[in-house]
Amino acid sequence: MNWISNYVRPKINSLFSRREVPDHLWLKCEECGTMLFHRELTDALNVCTNCQNHMAITPRERFAALFDGGVFVEVPVPAPVSDPLSFRDQKKYPDRLRETRKKTGEEEAMIVAEGEIGRLKTVCVGQNFKFMGGSMGMYVGNAIIAGVERAIQLKSPLVLFSAAGGARMQEGILSLMQMPRSTVAVQMLREAGLPYVVVLTDPTSGGVTASYAMLGDVQIAEPGALICFAGPRVIEQTIRETLPEGFQRSEYLLDHGMLDRVVHRKDMRRELATLLRLMTNNTPPVYGDLPAPTPDVPAVVK
User: Fold this and answer.
1) How many domains does the chain have?
2) What is the pTM assigned to this prediction?
3) Is there a domain that residue 8 lies in?
4) Are 215 and 142 in a shared domain?
5) How confident is the model over 181-235, as pLDDT tens digits?
6) Does residue 46 sit in the same domain as residue 76?
7) Is there a contact between 148 and 158 (Cβ–Cβ < 8 Å)?
8) Which of 279, 132, 114 is nearest to 208 (CA)?
9) pLDDT tens digit string along 108-120?
């Protein structure tokens, strides 16, 4: 046993050797510049622990934190025609779809799921901004209709999480037709007497805002979310005036009567559980595994 070669040399090498740190271990907050450890950020539901900036989150990550025990079942969505207009910009539309599916691991920009929130059967629809900006195409219209039909079948409320840059240009007028389709679907839900709650996340804009995203019985938004039809830069260039501070952000819209609540992501599950049970005339939710208190049993006074 050589003490120098077995202990001293490895120690010196460890001091001077350069270790490669994987890029995915840390993420920089776009608002405050804080470097966030990925595990810490995941535990915080992709909310910056320093400035509370709500970063993008996928529907699957959201559903895992929203449904009881993180358990949910996907609702099948009919697949539309893949390339109805044979559209091509810098790439062919099928090639762009194929690349995005490989990158995100998702079939399309919207996921429909069913599960329980506060022990109440609920159907949720989540838009994925990472999939071509969450753009609204025929699949998104099919997903909303599938979610509504499943909610009517289960006689349960529907919660929709919007995150989109607008209509999908590769599908042209067929994309714009999803606005009236989704509006009719929401009306079907209303005629069935079932609650429809919309949670607007950053960003929600374009034709999505002009249709299903602003038709909820209750409108909730995450803090700091950009909610608009045309973006602030376009408006400033059009009217040639400087817009107010925080214009088109969720807090601004709440102050001007466009929203009912602005809710932090960590409080969203509790907020929805209370709200949905109230809207369906159910008893208040009971959190944890303890049974609800029996009203017939008198309280013990010591």
Assistant:
1) 2
2) 0.86
3) no
4) yes
5) 999 999 999 999 999 999 999 999 999 999 999 999 999 999 999 999 988 889 9
6) no
7) yes
8) 132
9) 999 999 999 999 9
